[in-house]
Amino acid sequence: MSVRISFVPRFSPIHQLDPRTKGFIWLAVAFPALATNSILVCLAMFSITVVLSLAARVSSLYVKNLTKMIVPVFIPIFLIQGLFNPAGKTPVLFILPWLSFKREGLVFAAVLLARLLAVFGGGYLLTLTTHPGDLMASMQKLGLPLKIAYPLFSTFQIVPTIESRLQSVKQAQMSRGLKLEKINLVQRLRAYIPLITPVLMGAIEEAYRRSIALEARGFSSKTKKTYLREVRLRRFDYYFAAVIVLVVIFLSSAVMTVVPRAGPWGL
Amino acid sequence: MTEAKPSRLKIEFSTFGIAMIPLMIGINIASSYLAAGTPIWADTLGSMLAGIIIGPINGLVVGALTNIFKWVTFDPFALPYAIVNATIGFIAGVCALLGLVRKETNTSQVGRILVISIALAVVATLTSTPLNVSLWGGSTGKAWVDAIFAGFMAGGWQVFPASMAAEFISDITDKIITFFIAWLIYTRVPSHFIKTMRR
After folding, report:
1. pLDDT for the residue A265
2. What residue ranges do the domains of chain B occupy?
3. What does the alpha-carbon distance between residue A175 and residue A173 come to, in Å, rounded to a whole number?
4. CATH: 3.30.420.40, 3.90.79.10, 1.10.1760.20, 1.10.287.370. Which one for B8-198?
């Protein structure tokens, strides 16, 4: 399953920014994309995030991972929308005499793709350049209660332990004769119970131990808590956010004036 | 599981309840990993178990945080579906609070589980279809469901009903199997085990 944190430690101005600034930039980039629904505006906004990833020195990873995550999902979307979207009228490519890709459907799928790039690109950049600890500290500064923030961020440590526990349960059950290879669907579903039950029991015990450890560290104490990692908004954050907002306004209005929109199915 | 009288939030967000949340998120992820070769998602198993064992609000939080976590780590499509996962955990928890999820294994209990899982499937369809349609034009991201969706579209259906029908067919299989597994696992957890740890 290989769950990894997407954070990549680098030394760059983007990494130095407060997570709240990055969150704000994300919203600023996503807003025109959602408001206009135009492919070119969306791509312009996405290109801003690409430039930012260049500045953060994670651009190759950024583009590569986004491609890896998005392409397998969008191949079926293009196929289905291109072939069967009821709005499709003008055929562009015939596969069979009665089956063809239609322009409207393809444009619709392209709008979806461009919007996804613009909206998720900023968020992915945020997680790529922010240490989870910083993210947690800044979310608490924004008012997220510790009782929600703690479980979310301790998940990063716990998921790998659950993963390895599942592996050892698998091996233990196989040594007791549970078949897990070359089995049919029903057997595979039935194998769920001997596999997950021990993991759950272990999880309950682990939660008990963790709750004691947390209490020993004053988890539910009402006093003000201090953090190992400190986040604060500096002057650089404000300047950076202002520059990004100006760029977003300039780019989106420039695109909208150069290429006026031609209806919901146009570019 | 409704033995204590202090407010529900206090029970479900005791330190033990909070420590359970990340572990249940881990079970959600482990379960969807185990389900990789099957036609179901099974990514709500942990939310259902959290709802049944601890309570509806805990199930809701587990569901929502699972998708936020997946979105932060490896799945950019997961965030909007936090609503779906959270609702599933919440409803499973409410059903358990109402005493519909019991540990006995007889026909009437199996019937109850079946009814609850159909309700869960209906709720999951109602919450996720608008997301599917508005975000990806109706696709779901699981090949066999998309094939059904494409079939309905080829039959001349509009996007929304076609997507809803495909989503419902997939959700009903997914939720019936997942909730059955959750219940069977729950019957195997000794109740004193949870009680002594919860206090």
Report:
1. 47
2. 8-198
3. 5
4. 1.10.1760.20
